[in-house]
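Here is one chain, start to finish.
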Amino acid sequence: MTELPSLAAELEVGRVFVKDESYRLGLPAFKALGASWAVRRALAERAVNGEVPGPVTLVTATDGNHGRAVARMARLAGQRAHVFVPRGVHPQAVAAIVAEQTEVTEVAGPYDEAVRRAAEAAAGPDAVLIQDTAWAGYERIPGWIVEGYSTLCAEIDEQLADAGIAEGPDLVSIPVGVGSLAQAVVTHYRSRPSGRAPALLSVEPDAAACVLESFLLGEPVSVTTGDTVMAGLNCGTPSSIAWPYLHAGLDAAIAVSDADGSRAAARLAALGVSAGPCGAAALAGLHAALTGPAAEARRAELGLGPASVVVLLSTEGPAANPHSTVGL
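Its structure:
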């Protein structure tokens, strides 16, 4: 956790912290938290159920980080992996998955199509789908992934306490794809027995704002996605198990442009924080919410003032998503 006093002054709040996930369990993004726990639980369940011993194939679809994490955990556990990658994922991110000694299938369609292909490939008896989004009939393993992500929230509480903030943050800004990380954050902060309940802000690319669109329509919907440098957030459908938590627990949702995300990444880099466009989306969304027309009204709605504590979840480093960025 890195504190950025100059950013707090710029945004006219008390303190700003960045939860830096650019190096997590040897990988450049937070996704290893969920993948490691879900893979462990899935393999343990197979053993308890008396499944035929021997290697299985862990199958998933990914915009980059989740697939690499599943492939890494498969390799460490002596299993095989098969990762489906949609269009728009940077070749270097694909190469990083291949380097984990896994089979990679590149899909010409968007993320939702890659998920469908992965689910089909995992239908055999010697395969297990380790997907970080849920739908009717497939919810248990995505739930384990959300449990793994909750580690990040517990760390935030401990690190803020070490910084003299025992009561927790006033606002948490969360990059959102299908919403699984946001589900973990909502679950954590809406179920605490003590401490303040922070405002929770979700941030998506405007090319794939499925959660924002779902909020506007009052129900979970799919959107047609476009190209974005925020590749890890390029998802067209909210997770079925995440949506009830997001609908009930988020205070605000916002979509930002690629230029916004790239400028935020450059700003964080100038302050010594290594963030890719997806991780920097947390800052891009916060900046959009707290500046410009009607900013004071939005601050009031979010309960923010000059002494407020803000946490930005920077979910990946630039190595996870090597798209080029633009300067400020």
